[in-house]
């Protein structure tokens, strides 16, 4: 695998004996697998400076020519401004939620909550108006 335009050079070289050499610029960011005539190369965690034309080339035995096909890779960095401001937004939401919880807890603590949930006993006065009770008061 070669880079051909921006930073020309070898990215991955695999010999006939399956010995591989990976460019230090890609180190652990490159993986490849080979099954028969088919080779799969995966580049991970791409950066802007990885943008280039990549060519898979194969040495033709007894010839100075290469058999090759290429792919243009353009990497654009995502804007980080939104991520930084979103942390502040989430922090603000958490602070507002905590203040709201504190306000509710403070209100419930200083309110007599039990009186709102107890069954109220009716104010009933019972007076015995039977003949026996009236007679005992008249005798005295």
TrEMBL record:
GO terms for biological process: adaptive immune response. GO terms for molecular function: signaling receptor activity. Keywords: Membrane, Transmembrane, Transmembrane helix. It comes from the Eukaryota. Gene3D superfamilies: Immunoglobulins. The chain crosses the membrane at residues 87-111. One of its GO terms (cellular component) is membrane. This is CD7 protein.
